């Protein structure tokens, strides 16, 4: 029996405090050379895919643009397409929002990416919730919150119908007989649903993967169901062994009712790592990174996201504030101090969160900044390369995950130590590929080929 | 100071070529139409000929239901992005349909193309005038809006792209460890555009691209389109001796007069529009051979070739003569549409270009690194920067 294989993704750090931009090793995060370097490193490490998140609006806090983190990024699908020119094997995954895009445009872009990368495209389907983001787009904040998942589901189903509207053998391109297409109207579709009423012909012939790989991020009940019904991979925050095993079992259990097998959906928690030559050195490195990631100003900013008020006069090196958070503006009402930040939604009960922080501070004599670090700055894997490789393998072999989405804290060189020091150990264990065996991302992930096609499609609400 | 080429030369890439039978010609590689190599090789050929730029046609809708014609189309912006890293000097100008796209997305995509190519990005903006293209989006009723309204929207689309490109001042990123600030937010700007079809708040998510303002272009046959170009473009493609929606477009001189009149009437300031004439070319060693080729292609397709641009069937010398006469009239150059890319593109790069060089009309080496540079356009100041 072959050993269960680990799947690894490399996440080019986005716009949050993960990236320690003040580090002298921290380079440019917008020039193409940085993306090329990062992608080629991940490909050298035989990673399954590269992942880029999406930006639709700069974050704000207290009515001003949030200026403490790395910010500014290229269009992610555009960069992935360019990276296809300088890589040969690695999958290319990007987040594309279902709220501020139209299915024909998105399906066409992903099919193009798949064609022009030889079958390496993946789409992380996400939804938006706020009018804040909508202010940059034609429709504004048009979508009621309770329709977010409906739209995402219909968007995905529609895109899949569009990809399936061409059969793999529709293009003959037979110059001798003069027949380019088997049927003159390949790609014909008509879709009418709650969100869409579109018809015509999809312009892109079937791409190498048929359907690009579908990723869903989200730990919620709705997110789990969505992923179980139609995703090939799920991103999760559950990077702790027991919680991970619980999540893993729960999501895999849901697959059967959709007629799918456990191996049809890969579970990939997000993870950070800090290495050292000894355990002590790694722990010290991790501590330093945490303090760099949560500087005094960032600690205050994080506290403001819980307290939902200006805390600029609070001392980050003093105790957690004794007063309660402001709770009159709920996160979804648009009145919250922090805008454009999905993580704020975690603070469903800010008073309880504040109490928790205060108790932790009092119990262990921690300052506000230290509490923030404890709550937000924990690294997933800290240790020697051997320890990290052992832990990753243990997670995967004990069904806490199928692998990880790794995000380094330095751009663009932060993945190099992992690739150079940890990957060879995973390969020694027989848990990770030493060469790419397939050509498409579906093959890297051990997924079945896309379902075969149907000529005319109708998606009902 | 670089010496700007006397003539500017572009090639319009569209699949296997602009003749519907082109896909059946030797070397057409029709079975590779949807692969990267097909596009990379074409653009490298154009770059070997020192051309200013290539354009990539685009449309969401397919052109025909005929099974004996090549069909299928990739996203033009992504084609340009795939080509970007493996070319070094030539400008890359994908087409964007303003009517059905988000100006915010297009602005960041073109800015990204500019980053990937370190300053060789352009965009050609067009409006959608086909019912089948509207139906693919299902959001707007075809024919419900005036032609003028659609062009106004395209002008707004360009304006939003441009404001977003400027919304980050060049020195906005400060990495000030002392205060923990990565950017100086006083150098990031809301664009607060409000128009009939969209409002966009900004700033962009993407810092100001290498060229500051990538090159904006449009194809125009009628006054409303000349006006769009005059309002928002750097470069306009026109069709001397061709046919537009309103009938014959007139000769180069008449068109140029109209373009300049529109520039005056919209109060354009700064650089005047660079005007390139479009020409669909069927090239061969003699006029007779070229005519024979076209006749054969038409017979294969079963229909006579039709085009909005003038069709020139002849030798590279004939093309050079036309370009020279256009140049004398005041056009900046030409955009050539090869009837059969596999045949006519090498004729352009390997025969026409040397002929133009002999006449002292075309560069013998690239002397600029950016697309704006090829046209002698400086990197513009940021509209939001305090002087």
From TrEMBL, chain A:
One of its GO terms (molecular function) is monooxygenase activity. The keyword Oxidoreductase applies. Residues 315-338 are annotated as: Disordered. Residues 26-398 form the Luciferase-like domain. The keyword Thylakoid does not apply. Belongs to the NtaA/SnaA/DszA monooxygenase family. Keywords: Flavoprotein, FMN, Monooxygenase, Oxidoreductase. PANTHER family: ALKANESULFONATE MONOOXYGENASE-RELATED, C2H2 FINGER DOMAIN TRANSCRIPTION FACTOR (EUROFUNG)-RELATED. Its EC number is 1.14.-.-. NCBIfam families: FMN_nitrolo (TIGR03860). This is NtaA/DmoA family FMN-dependent monooxygenase.
TrEMBL record, chain B:
The keyword Oxidoreductase applies. Transmembrane segments: none annotated. Residues 34-296 form the Luciferase-like domain. Pfam families: Bac_luciferase. The keyword Flavoprotein applies. Keywords: Flavoprotein, FMN, Monooxygenase, Oxidoreductase. SUPFAM superfamilies: Bacterial luciferase-like. It comes from the Bacteria. Belongs to the NtaA/SnaA/DszA monooxygenase family. PANTHER family: ALKANESULFONATE MONOOXYGENASE-RELATED, C2H2 FINGER DOMAIN TRANSCRIPTION FACTOR (EUROFUNG)-RELATED. This is LLM class flavin-dependent oxidoreductase. It comes from Actinomycetospora lemnae.
């Amino acid at each position: 029996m072959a050993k269960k294989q680990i799947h690894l993704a490399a996440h080019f750090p986005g716009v949050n405090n993960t990236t320690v931009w003040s580090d002298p090793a921290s380079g440019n995060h917008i020039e193409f050379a940085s993306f090329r370097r990062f992608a080629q490193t991940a490909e050298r490490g035989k990673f399954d895919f590269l992942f880029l998140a999406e930006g639709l609006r700069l974050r704000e806090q207290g009515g001003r643009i949030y200026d403490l983190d790395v910010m500014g990024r290229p269009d992610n699908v555009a960069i992935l397409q360019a990276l296809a020119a300088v890589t040969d094997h690695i999958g290319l995954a990007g987040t594309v929002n279902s709220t501020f895009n139209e299915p024909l445009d998105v399906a066409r872009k992903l099919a193009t990416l798949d064609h022009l990368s030889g079958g390496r495209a993946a789409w992380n389907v996400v939804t938006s919730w706020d009018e804040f983001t909508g202010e940059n787009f034609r429709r504004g904040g048009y979508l009621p919150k309770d329709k977010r998942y409906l739209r995402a589901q219909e968007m995905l189903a529609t895109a899949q119908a569009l990809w399936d509207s061409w059969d793999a053998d529709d293009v003959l391109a037979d110059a001798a007989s003069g027949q380019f297409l088997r049927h003159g109207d390949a790609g014909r579709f008509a879709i009418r649903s709650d969100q869409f009423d579109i018809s015509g012909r999809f312009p892109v012939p079937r791409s190498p993967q048929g359907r690009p790989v579908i990723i869903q991020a989200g730990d919620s009940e709705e997110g789990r169901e969505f992923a179980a019904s139609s995703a090939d991979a799920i991103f999760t925050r559950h990077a702790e062994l027991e919680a991970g095993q619980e999540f893993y079992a729960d999501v895999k259990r849901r697959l059967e009712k959709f007629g799918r097998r456990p191996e049809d959906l890969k579970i990939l928690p997000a993870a950070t790592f800090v290495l050292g030559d000894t355990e002590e050195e790694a722990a010290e490195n991790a501590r330093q990174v945490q303090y760099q990631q949560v500087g005094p100003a960032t600690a205050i900013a994080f506290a403001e996201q819980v307290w939902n008020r200006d805390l600029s006069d609070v001392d980050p090196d003093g105790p957690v504030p004794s007063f309660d958070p402001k709770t009159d503006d709920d996160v979804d009402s648009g009145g919250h101090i922090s805008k454009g930040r999905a993580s704020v939604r975690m603070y469903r009960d800010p008073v309880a969160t504040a109490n928790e922080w205060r108790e932790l501070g009092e119990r262990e004599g921690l300052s506000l900044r230290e509490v923030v670090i404890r709550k937000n700055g924990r690294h997933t894997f800290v240790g020697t390369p051997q320890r990290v490789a052992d832990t990753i393998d243990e997670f995967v072999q004990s069904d806490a995950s199928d692998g990880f989405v790794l995000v380094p804290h330095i751009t663009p060189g932060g993945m190099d130590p992992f690739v150079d020091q940890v990957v060879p150990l995973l390969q020694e264990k027989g848990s990770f590929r030493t060469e790419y065996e397939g050509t498409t991302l579906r093959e890297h992930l051990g997924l079945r080929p896309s379902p075969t096609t149907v000529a005319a499609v109708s998606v009902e609400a | 100071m670089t010496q700007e080429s006397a003539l500017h030369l572009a090639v319009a890439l569209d699949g296997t070529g602009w003749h519907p039978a082109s896909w059946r010609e030797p070397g057409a590689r029709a079975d590779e139409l949807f692969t990267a190599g097909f596009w990379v090789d074409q653009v490298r050929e154009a770059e070997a000929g020192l051309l200013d730029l290539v354009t990539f046609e685009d449309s969401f809708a397919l052109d025909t239901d005929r099974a004996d014609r090549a069909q299928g189309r990739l996203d033009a912006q992504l084609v340009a992005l795939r080509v970007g890293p493996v070319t070094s000097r030539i400008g890359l100008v994908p087409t964007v349909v303003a009517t059905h796209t988000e100006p915010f997305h297009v602005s960041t995509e073109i800015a990204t193309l500019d980053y990937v190519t370190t300053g060789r990005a352009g965009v050609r903006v067009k409006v959608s005038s086909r019912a089948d293209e509207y139906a693919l989006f299902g959001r707007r009723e075809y024919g419900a809006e005036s032609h003028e309204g659609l062009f106004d929207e395209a002008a707004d689309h360009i304006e939003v792209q441009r404001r977003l490109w400027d919304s980050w001042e060049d020195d906005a990123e400060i990495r000030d460890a002392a205060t923990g600030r990565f950017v100086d937010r006083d150098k990031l700007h809301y664009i607060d555009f409000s128009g009939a079809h969209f409002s966009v708040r900004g700033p962009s998510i993407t810092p100001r691209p290498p060229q500051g303002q990538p090159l904006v272009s449009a194809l125009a046959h009628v006054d409303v389109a000349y006006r769009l170009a005059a309002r928002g473009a750097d470069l306009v493609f026109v069709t001397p001796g061709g046919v537009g929606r309103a009938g014959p477009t007139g000769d180069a001189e008449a068109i140029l007069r109209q373009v300049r009149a529109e520039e005056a009437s919209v109060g354009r300031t700064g650089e005047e529009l660079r005007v390139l004439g479009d020409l669909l070319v069927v090239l061969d060693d003699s006029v007779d051979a070229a005519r024979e080729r076209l006749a054969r292609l038409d017979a294969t397709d079963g229909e006579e070739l039709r085009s909005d641009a003038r069709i020139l069937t002849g030798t590279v010398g004939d093309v050079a003569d036309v370009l020279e006469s256009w140049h004398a009239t005041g056009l900046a150059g030409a955009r050539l549409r090869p009837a059969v890319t596999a045949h006519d593109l090498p004729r352009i790069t390997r025969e026409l270009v040397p002929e133009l060089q002999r006449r002292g009309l075309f560069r013998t080496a690239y002397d600029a690194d950016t697309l704006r540079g090829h046209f002698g356009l400086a990197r513009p100041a940021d509209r939001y920067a305090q002087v």
